[in-house]
Amino acid sequence: MFLLSVVVSFFLVFTAATNVSQCPGKSFDGLKENVQLMPCKKLPCRLKKGTATNITIHFTPDSDMDSVKNHVTADLFGIAFPFVGVDGLSVCGKFETENGEKAPCPLKAGNKYIYRDSFQVLEIYPSVKVKVHWALQHGEKDIICFEVPVNIE
Length: 153
Prior knowledge:
By secondary structure, the protein is mostly beta strands. It has one domain (2-152): Immunoglobulin-like (Sandwich). Helices cover 11% and strands 41% of the residues. It is built from 2 helices and 10 strands; from the N terminus they run H-E-H-E-E-E-E-E-E-E-E-E. The strands form 2 sheets. Strands 1, 3, 5, 6, 9 and 10 form a 6-stranded mixed β-sheet that branches. The protein has a 4-stranded antiparallel β-sheet with strand order 2-4-8-7.
């Protein structure tokens, strides 16, 4: 019984959602439950240069989508700077179905998908506290969008 409770506790700690915020002027149902950044145990998320950060987003598109890209910026002094190596990239090869099967684009309306990705925190990033704006986009429309405070170290 003790082993079972340890396993359950481990699973809950490492699959907990990240406390992200809605993007200004946007509202996505269940946003906080559907976004996970690893490692991010508490806010602000600590992004250590030279390491990888993993992201998982659960979502259901409301229309068919032939292409999806990342839109990732860091808000520094009111200016949105693109995250080099992440912003503007196609993510069509990074989706799964709820069953864990690969799901390349086009994505179908009403189906549940999981976006999984990993990105490097590059050494060229400045050591700063910023607000990261992350969206998955089809054309110029946000499929899902969130903001999270981070500390790049």
